[in-house]
Amino acid sequence: MKQPILNPFRPGAGHPPPYLAGREEEKREFIRLLDQEPVLTNLVLTGLRGVGKTVLLETLKPLAIQKNWLWAGTDLSESAAVSEDSIAVRILADLSPLTANTLVSESEVRRVGFTATAEKQQTYLDFSFLKWLYDNTPGLTSDKLKTVLELVWTSLGADNSDIRGVVLAYDEAQNLSDQADRQQYPLSLLLDVFQSIQKKGLPFFLVLTGLPTLFPKLVEARTFTERMFHIMTLGRLAEAECRDAILKPITQHACPVRFTGAAVAEIVKYSGGYPYFIQFLCREMFDSYLQQKAGGEINPVVTVEQTIRKLDSDFFAGRWNRVTDRQRELLSVAARLPNCDDEFTVQEVVEQSRKGSEKPFSPSHVNQILAKLADNGLVYKNRHGRYVFAVPLLGGFIRRQEALEGA
Ligand SMILES: Nc1ncnc2c1ncn2[C@@H]1O[C@H](COP(=O)(O)OP(=O)(O)O)[C@@H](O)[C@H]1O
Ligand SMILES: [Mg+2]
User: Ligand 1 center to residue 275 CA distance, Å?
Assistant: First the structure.
């Protein structure tokens, strides 16, 4: 029987692409950071949804391991870290698989006052021990966590002198928030503890990944974070990198389906260089070609334009349907700005609205609506106080909608 033709493209959050294009400079930078001794600079990996933060983080892991770093961490999208205690316990749980086979020295066991159970003569750094130490250390949550991390490093370092340190990597870290009303400061806790243990020379290296709201949030919690992190902002892929992302999977898998030169150029153009859109367009076009072929079509024709319509309904429409009419009007005005895919100011939106036929917006109104849209995750305010669409290529979608409605 003939083997079915597999579609190599993988649009989807965190799905490893068939070929990870570009990001060479980011990998090199990460390797440089791994060479620090002591750790002074941690890493924030940021960018819009779909630019490839999660998959890049996954590719950094083997690089760290190759350099004798241990790697622990998780995805914080479940927002497990709403209290200080929960983020601390989260860290213990993430570290414990790395340390569970490491023995704690007799003298350390005596020093901390742990009494081993009769059946276990030796004490291992497993979760129950880490948690015991955490619970039985007097003081604030930060003191408890610092004590555990210090013991973890002393024991790991003593056990295996080749180990350079421990990378703690948290994805979707924009979900971490201090909550003054509940008097819970998990984000500040994390920053305080890392700053303190790194000052003491303990090689724990923090990697936080998240949406562009992440870094401003860190700085708001603790101003010293400005100096504590190197910010890596992932953006669109360059044209040659886009071509690699599109073409390499086809040649590597020896696919019988090919994209024409014109199709490749169109995919590059419409995707705006955003990895998620590249995967989406390629996957859809590939499938559609195969379906037509299976339906008996001798020369299937698949255009990027048809596929864009599917992208609009699958990806953008859900988000668009959740905004109110007045918010839509404002977004439409913003989408007419030539710089809408980069950043724009309240003033620019106001001025643009005066050029249109609808009722113009006042500055306070624009401010108010943009703040609301920011709460809903459609725009965000960047470090320079300017607004940016939080969904890549939203401007193009809005203009396409308008053209449809006008038609
Ligand atoms: N460098 C890249 N080359 C090709 N495809 C990529 C690249 N980076 C990400 N992708 C693809 O883009 C999509 C989004 O990646 P993901 O890591 O989930 O983004 P983020 O975490 O930033 O939201 C996935 O389908 C992934 O396979
Ligand atoms: Mg992600």
Answer: 5
